[in-house]
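Dear colleagues,

As part of the handover before I leave the project, I'm documenting each prediction I ran so the next person doesn't have to rerun anything. This entry is a single chain, and its sequence is reproduced below.
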Amino acid sequence: MRTLLLLLACTSAVIAVPQYLSHGGLYAHAPVAVSAPVIHAPIAVEPVSYPKYAFNYGVKDPHTGDIKSQQEERDGDVVKGSYSLVEPDGSTRTVDYSADDHNGFNAVVHKTGHAVHPVAVAAPIAHYAPAPAISISPYGLH
């Protein structure tokens, strides 16, 4: 019972309570909203540290041709960086970006190098002779 009272005291709820109204000698039920008390628990607030970092990385795999890099730095609410990668056509895409509260996110894309598209060689067309027609009857093959 104590747990139930504690539960009701800690939650905000609307409870329907019957109230008797007189209508020509008859009583009718009319729900009335009653709010339970709200108890707020203390909230622990952690200190917010000033966001500042810088990083970079790169991959250069001659076996697969996977070549890419990225660098980024943040000082408070200002982020600046760039990344580049070699596209499947052989050109290099470089993206320089920045973001802050005043200008929002901005990116500038540069493409360097020449796209190389392999020339497709058409496979020879195979010509097949139609299969011989075989008819089957109850008397054997014809």
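The first helix runs from residue 2 to 10. The first strand starts at residue 14 and ends at 17.

All the best with the project,
I.
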